[in-house]
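Researcher: Sequence recovery benchmark, item below. Answer with residues only.
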């Protein structure tokens, strides 16, 4: 099964309370995004946003320029359906992140639990290269930590900590702040995440 087929199948067959990553409110992501102190017209992109409610909360807070990117068309369809008319205020991009060819730059790049699926040095370098082109100001990345699971959605992932995440992006980004956090899944298991924020050099 290709990676795209895997994700289309996940979103075709499972609802939010059947997948580990679901959050009622992505508070940590919202706190990091607001910590950058940008105006509501800041351009924000959520990488691997899936059908996460981050976009709903950002719209509710008044952010006007939001893009959600995901490899799964079905995931974005579900998010659009949920948002109804509000979906028209959002840009939606279906692509594998490693093949993303950005046509604009973003003030804030957010990624929770998508970057960690990249496991080969080539995929990871490609992601770093794309962020170097596409991010103009800030980035926030959340992945499983070195105390977290080794797989997500049945797929191998790469675990990070503050040091390894900083090292990956150090050519073009300065790390601002990292935290670790326990996420409680809908099945009451716990997954340790690391989140880091970065400033473009
Ligand atoms: C674990 S889920 C996290 C979803 C969301 N960010 C959240 O926090 O709820 C991973 C998401 O990344 C997407 N994804 C996985 N690999 C991807 C890739 N190579 N390019 C773009 N999106 C990808 C999946 O379709 C899925 O929506």
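Model:
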């Amino acid at each position: 099964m290709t990676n795209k087929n895997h994700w289309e199948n996940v979103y075709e067959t499972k609802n939010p309370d059947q997948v580990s990553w679901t959050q009622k409110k992505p508070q940590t992501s919202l706190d990091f995004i607001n910590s950058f102190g940008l105006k509501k017209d800041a351009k924000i992109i959520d990488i691997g946003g899936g059908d996460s409610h981050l976009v709903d909360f950002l719209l509710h807070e008044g952010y006007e320029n939001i893009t959600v990117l995901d490899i799964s068309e079905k995931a974005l369809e579900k998010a659009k359906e949920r948002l109804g008319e509000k979906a028209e205020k959002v840009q939606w991009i279906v692509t594998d992140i490693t093949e993303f060819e950005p046509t604009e730059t973003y003030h804030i790049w957010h990624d929770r639990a998508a970057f960690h699926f990249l496991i080969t040095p080539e995929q990871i370098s490609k992601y770093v290269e794309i962020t170097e082109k596409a991010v103009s100001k800030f980035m926030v990345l959340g992945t499983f930590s070195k105390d977290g699971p080794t797989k997500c959605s049945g797929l191998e992932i790469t675990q990070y900590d503050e040091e390894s995440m900083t090292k990956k992006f150090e050519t073009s980004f300065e790390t601002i702040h990292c935290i670790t956090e326990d996420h409680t899944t809908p099945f009451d298991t716990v997954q340790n995440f690391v989140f880091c924020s970065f400033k473009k050099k």
